[in-house]
Amino acid sequence: MMRINLAFRSLATSLATALTIFVVLQASGVTAAKEYTLESGDVIRVTVYDNPDLTTTARVNQAGKISVPLIGEVRVGESSPEQAAIRIADGLKKGGFIANPQVNVFVERYRSPTVSILGEVQKAGKYPVRDPTGEDIRTVSDLLAMSGGLTANAADFMTLIKKGTDKTSGYKIDLIALLQRGDMSQNLEIVEGDVLYVPRMALFYIYGEVQRPGSFRLEREMTLMQALAVGGGLTPRGTQRGIEVRRRNGDGTVNTLKVKMSDLLQPEDVVFVKESIF
Questions:
Q1: Which of 59, 146, 177, 211 is 20 to 30 A from 85 in CA distance terms?
Q2: Is 278 exposed, middle or buried (0-12, 13-18, 19+ CB in 10 A)?
Q3: pLDDT tens-digit profile of 197-248?
Q4: Do 43-109 and 203-275 agree at the fold level?
Q5: Topology of domain 203-275, per CATH?
């Protein structure tokens, strides 16, 4: 029973480890990071060394240009920040404003389309589809890696809600199949506006004559016998003949059930072990 208990307690760690290994294996075939190119909607800050009055923050317009003090409009679209800095420096030098300008261009906010990941991940939020420091976000595993992976409280599945679809429905992704078995059919493609949601793990509760009463993670297809093992087993006063499961119905009412050791538990089940009368 102790062996079963340890196995289930380590599942969250196994999922996190599997994600790390999965990402490393994917990264082993990645080439050098792509250079980010500016586009319409990016917000950039331009600084000129020893000339603080020329510092400016501007949004790249639809024509791919920004307005720079002294020299006017400069085309920066489809250029890297470094290339944009060279163009601005050339304009300042050719205009006779600064003999040897040292210009820096920093992207303050990326316009790149975003995807979102919510719920039980290390860093929930929006992420640019075009990652300026590496590979684009194209799949579920890409976004999981960008968000830092799952928390210890994550469920063993997540939901992908496609852009423009009903928020109450989505594609259910089996995390055990994806991260532990490498099932690429679960590694769905994601595009701008998609949302990934990782729910909190399902729980069951066990009280009465058990060694460790409390709430625990409900593993997939967990039986009553396995639940008792997670709870440390019966106390000397406990009896298998006095076990009840209290289960909440959809309408909020609670049923008290007599169950067998091989019966499966459901989320939020409450297992109560009675004391033997002998």
A1: 146
A2: exposed
A3: 999 999 999 999 999 999 999 999 999 999 999 999 999 999 998 899 999 9
A4: no
A5: Outer membrane lipoprotein wza fold like (3.10.560)
